[in-house]
Amino acid sequence: MFSKAKPKVPEKSDRPFVPSIISANLHITGNLESDGDIQVDGRVDGDIRSQKLTIGETAIVNGMVDADTVMVAGQVNGKIRARDLSLTRTSRVIADVVQERLSIESGAYFEGNCRCSPKDAIKDANVVAVRKIEAVPSAGVLKGPGDGMKKPSGGLLSDSQGIG
Length: 164
Fold this sequence. Notes:
Layout: E1 20-22, E2 27-29, E3 32-33, E4 37-40, E5 43-45, E6 48-55, E7 60-72, E8 75-87, E9 92-104, E10 109-116, E11 126-130, E12 149-150, E13 156-157
Parallel strand pairs: 1-4, 2-5, 3-6, 4-6, 5-7, 6-7, 7-8, 8-9, 9-10
Antiparallel strand pairs: 10-11, 12-13
């Protein structure tokens, strides 16, 4: 009845996490850090670090994103580091990406560098450059790295990024 035993307090891992939500009408300037889940539907100008991050269709994130699992349906400008990264058809990502697993739905927009890395080897990953290339359907010729595309008239075609 009068024991000195302390009441049991749930361990941190025993407690369920409710995601922190940044609503569509909220604009945050500064960094966000959470041990749990974050859902962004508004605008964040700053870095975000969490276990799981969901960037909704109305969201805009300007900064670095670092999470185990990231699902992007909105806009990200900056850098993304994640074990699992999913870009939905509504996403617009202009960022350098380091990930272990990447899925991109048809219709998603992605511009930047992509590094695929195994577990805990993010810094040693190989870089694959991804750039937007404009194709000219009437030319009927595709271009590989370092090759110019020949127009039917004999001139050279190139992309808008200055690759060729």
